[in-house]
Amino acid sequence: xxxxxxxxxxxxxxxxxxxxxxxxxxxxxxxxxxxxxxxxxxxxxxxxxxxxxxxxxxxxxxxxxxxxxxxxxxxxxxxxxxxxxxxxxxxxxxxxxxxxxxxxxxxxxxxxxxxxxxxxxxxxxxxxxxxxxxxxxxxxxxxxxxxxxxxxxxxxxxxxxxxxxxxxxxxxxxxxxxxxxxxxxxxxxxxxxxxxxxxxxxxxxxxxxxx
Length: 211
Description:
By secondary structure, the protein is mostly helical. Helix content is 76%, strand content 0%. The chain contains 11 helices and no strands. The relative contact order is 0.07.
């Protein structure tokens, strides 16, 4: 489970990184690539030729540069479309289709398990561990000491003899945060204010543990 979780987060991180590269390339291409410019240069070149005048070397170089950028832009667009299509194909794979019935049943069970009143707050984590003292504070301390969030989750999971996902949920879902939001808030130390608001009755403990 831990290895699978790590691989999933790695794939998501890679996909985000690839999308940022595409965004950067397309933003740059939109500023510099214009097929209309190439056409205008070609017309100018033809005028020079019709008048039996030498075509300026700078104009030739500019045309070649723009054509090259235009071709690169087309190749990058094709690569982007293929990347998106592959992601869609994975998401709608035969395996998922075959397991749809099982997934629907699992979803129903999960929804029933987590359907609580709007004002409900689970005071204790798995095996009676407290969310603040046993999960959040130890994980935050480990991350402040240089551990990644995955390393911190894994160490606390081993210490408390619970699953990796249990620690992850206690540090993210219990606070209404995504994993990225949790990691960023720990790095900026905004996490202290977040848990103080949720556990206002434990401000003294939080201040003492997370100075």
